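Hi, here's the filled form for the chain we discussed.

Project: internal
Contact: R.S.
Residues: 205
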Amino acid sequence: MKIISPSFTISNPLEEIEILKRIEAAGRLCYKSEHKINEDSAYKFVQNIIARGHESVLEHEKITAVIICDRGVSHEIVRHRIASYSQESTRYCNYTGEKFNKELTFIKPVFWKEDSKLYGIWEKEMRSIENAYFEMIENKASPQEARSILPNSLKTEIAATMNIRQWRHFLKLRTAPASHPQMIEIASQILTKFKSLYPVLFGDI
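And the returned structure, exactly as it came back:
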């Protein structure tokens, strides 16, 4: 059994200026102001449309993030539209195989300390589930049958592609205090990275 923390990677990293220029080119069609495009105009143009709430123009560009989280959090992520998702399948993945190191991987709960009683109860139950899953596979259950006992804490990987406007909506909503603690944990990581890579697009969140 393995216990890990959530993480993510950006699978299509781009320089912010490339994104901004393409957004500017699309957005200036609205005003027929293409003649104002120059080497430095994209930053101010996109800042202005965000400040004015004209965020539909941001939909012309997208970012794909591969998110490692628990399955409970992934169920919340896929509620967001418009977006495209591809997720690790418990129907077809046999976790007794070599490529999974013959073990189940779980996401560490953010709300309990490792030396707490509640964490101990959780860890014991995850180990029990792993043992039961392996026993079911050994007794000829298929992965799609054995998955019926897998918990929300099971690690999953999900590729999420959203346009810039939808990422802004997602990150505003999922880093808010009312969001689930496990969701806040991974969404905050994404927001911090996006702010560092794309300050014009996400710096105001």
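Let me know if anything looks off before we file it.
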